[in-house]
Amino acid sequence: MKSQSVYSKIKDAAELIQTRFQGFKPEVGVILGSGFSGLMDSPEFTPIGTIPYSEIPHFHGVSVEGHAGSIKLGTFGTTPVAMLNGRFHLYEGYPMEDCVLPTRVLCSLGIHTLMITNAVGAINPKYRSGDLMFIEDHLNLMGDNPLRGAQMKELGPQYPDMSQAYSFDCRRVLESQATQLDISFHEGVYAGMLGPTYETPAEVRMLRAMGADVVGMSTVHETIAAHHLGVRVAGICSITNLAAGLSNKPVSRTDIVENSKNSLKNVEAILSHSLPLFSGADTV
Ligand code: HPA
Questions:
Q1: Whose CA is nearest to atom 9 of ligand 1?
Q2: For ligand 1, atom 10, which residue shows the shortest CA distance?
Q3: pLDDT tens profile 91-113
Q4: Ligand 1 centroid to 216 CA: how many Å?
């Protein structure tokens, strides 16, 4: 029963988008995290149309400040893209299947790659606020999984391999383009926490011991959902703060949204150079 309803929700939402923008076939999906909406105003982005989440069947409104709620279609550089401007976090109280619905809808529009952006706190002592990190792997500490429940045969396997959840080839593209643009970056492990509280210093020490380099409250569920559907995933984190206990400043949402805007120009440059190169990259 559950698999049927998830599948039909995806179909309803995708059909509305396809009907409104017939003939437009996005190749890359982009999820815009906190402070990243500015990517839509990039001179690199030529919009074709916008659909507010409120008009898309089964989508919720977005309740988080710093996140709008719409799908934007257009071309980024030369690449046809579908952008999610705003995401649903598990901590907002929605069921997991609703949180990953927009991701699954992007995938069902036919994208081959999903580019996830987010804001994170740094755990690795070498990282600084303002740095960028490409995600190499994640720790799912959200306490849930989008594949929990009845098997969803229409979507993908029940036990997906996760040994390369973040595409190695896409990461190589991001890295080579960042290097050419003279933008420094890290490569590391993202720990996904439920939130909405930021971590305690003890939790940050635990995450470091577990091998995390950064921490956030999103991304992991979106990656699992896209990977399950056979879509490649790449992730760019904007490091907006040092995680709790690693500086004498409290972690503040206002600082995080402000700081993520500072890395926008660099992310924009990396994306506009990298997206056209993704199409020739590996399989999932
Ligand atoms: N913790 C969790 N999520 C975050 C942080 C943090 O320090 N910074 C940005 N998102």
A1: 120
A2: 120
A3: 999 999 999 999 999 999 999 99
A4: 5
Break the chain into its structural domains and give their ranges.
2-279
Instruction: Please list every protein residue whose CB sits less than 6 Å from any atom of ligand 1.
Output: 119-121, 198-199, 215-217, 240-241, 243, 251, 256
Q: List all residues 6 or more positions away from 94 whose beta carbon is below 8 Å from its beta carbon.
A: 60, 88
User: What does CATH list as the number for 2-279?
Assistant: 3.40.50.1580
Dihedral of alpha carbons 203, 258, 196, 166, sign: negative
122 CA distance to ligand 1 middle (Å): 8
d(CA 88, CA 123): 24
- In tens, the pLDDT along 115-168 reads 999 999 999 999 999 999 999 999 999 999 999 988 888 888 899 999 999 999
Q: Which residues contact 98 (CB under 8 A, 6 or more apart)?
A: 58, 60, 88
Residue 45: strand pairing partners? 76
Atom 7 (ligand 1): residue with closest C-alpha? 121
